Amino acid sequence: MGAPRPSVFSTVLRAVPLSQCRPELVEMGMVVMPPSKLDEISTLELEFPLVFRVCPVSGPNKTSHCGVVEFTAEEGTVYVPDWLLLSLGAFGGDRLNFTTCSLPLGTHVKLQARSKAFLDISNPRAVLEKKLRDYPTLTKGDVIYFSYANKDFEMIVKDTKPSNAISILNADVIVDFDAPEDYEEPTPVPPAPQQAKYNPEEDHHTEDPLRVESYSSLEEESSEEDTTNLFIGKAESVGGKKIADKTTVLGMMGTKKQEDAKVLVMEGGKILYKVRVFFKHLLM
Question: Are 257 and 282 in contact (CB under 8 A)?
Fold first, then answer.
């Protein structure tokens, strides 16, 4: 019997951003490897579809995961989605290590849009679920990318279950959303103060010092007082200027000293107002 074939594949390749060579593939979570790597993989006992753990050979200590879509890249290179390079803190020309691995099927993922413009999509959940079909894996902390209606969107992978890296191929995954990163809660507007409704019944029983009493009530009140000194005349200021045309002043002297007189100011047969005044002399 021959020795068992290895069940792990590992290789190092120089990264080339997909946007520079295969822009139609940038919206996915898979890379393009050279044909020679397919020949190597075919000699191994590997689980398909292939899933790779990827990390920079040098530089930031970051790890992500991806699949492979083709084996048509130039030898020695690997075409990598731009979002994956950004998540790894790597750049075009950097050397990346790819190692096959197995990930658990995902059950839950929480995503957060970078921009609140994502909320303008008529059915964002349906759009995103369709876009995720091109992402065989999701890793917590990654920022994936897709476009829709001529707009570009970035989604932060905030959480994944049951582990920090999951496979979502043929998996029944619950997708939740956090509020967009730039979203601000609207400032609550205090309700406008309600004005009290006028109630004529209440007004009838409310004492109002400025309310003019009816002429009949004034006549009744006047009849109870001393009417011996009743006078009628024109209202004039101290300088002799008329206060109002056709204005009659009715008054009653309360005492001989002409103190505490009640004055009714009328015009056209209607009472304008009533006051009590204190004076020593009344000029007619």
Answer: no
DSSP string of 51-115?
-EEEEESSSS---EEEEEEES-SPTTEEEE-HHHHHHHT--TT-EEEEEE---PBP-EEEEEESS
Q: Among residues 60, 58, 70, 66, which one has the least CA distance to residue 33?
A: 70
For residues 217 and 108, what is the distance between their CA atoms, to the nearest angstrom?
A: 84
d(CA 189, CA 278): 54
Q: What is the C-alpha to C-alpha distance for residues 28 and 44, in angstroms, rounded to an integer?
A: 26
Let me know: does 110 contact 35? Beta carbons within 8 Å.
no
Element of type H or E holding 148: strand 143-148
Instruction: Please report, in tens digits, the pLDDT of each residue of the chain (284 residues total).
Output: 455 666 899 999 999 999 999 999 999 999 999 999 999 999 999 989 999 999 999 878 899 999 999 999 999 999 999 999 999 999 999 999 999 999 999 999 999 999 999 989 999 889 988 999 999 999 999 999 999 988 999 999 999 999 999 999 989 999 999 999 888 877 777 777 776 666 666 655 555 444 444 444 544 544 444 444 444 445 444 455 555 444 444 444 444 444 444 445 455 555 554 544 444 444 44
Q: How far apart are CA 69 and CA 26, in angstroms?
A: 12
Cβ neighbors of 151 (< 8 A, separation 6 or more) are 117
Rounded distance between C-alpha atoms, residue 228 and residue 219, angstroms: 15
Contacts of residue 135, defined as CB under 8 A and 6 or more positions apart, other chains included, come to 28, 29, 144, 168
